Amino acid sequence: MRDFAGTPGTLTGLALRLSQCVFAAGSITAMTTTTSFFDFTAFCYLIASMGLQVIWSFGLALLDAYALVKKKALHNTVMLSLFVVGDWVTAILSLAAASASAGVTVLYFHDLGNCDFVGECQKYQMLEC
């Protein structure tokens, strides 16, 4: 199997995994520093999905670092299938969480601006995480 940029067990793969981990941790930090972020379920789901992204990316970064130190190729079919499925799952969860958060943001800032029952509408949307 040929080495492409970003494949598991290469230096660029390690750099990409570390940057995924850093950006996911940065987004969690930015979200948790707000005061009312935890009042909405969609935003809690976004934090949970980014937490899963941090764990997944950090685990694969450690695996890439191990492969670089031991000079082993991670081109096993089973390992690559695991990477693809894991990346696919975390990508779908992140997309769903970001879409839900964007939908809630649009609902509160644009759609409920003309609603006379804003307090009534919001009490059914708020949940404790």
UniProtKB/TrEMBL annotation:
Localization of this protein: Cell membrane
Signal peptide interval: none
Cellular component terms (Gene Ontology): plasma membrane
Tree of life domain: Eukaryota
Domain Casparian strip membrane protein: 7-124
Subunit structure: Homodimer and heterodimers.
Protein name from the UniProt record: CASP-like protein
Species the sequence originates in: Salix koriyanagi
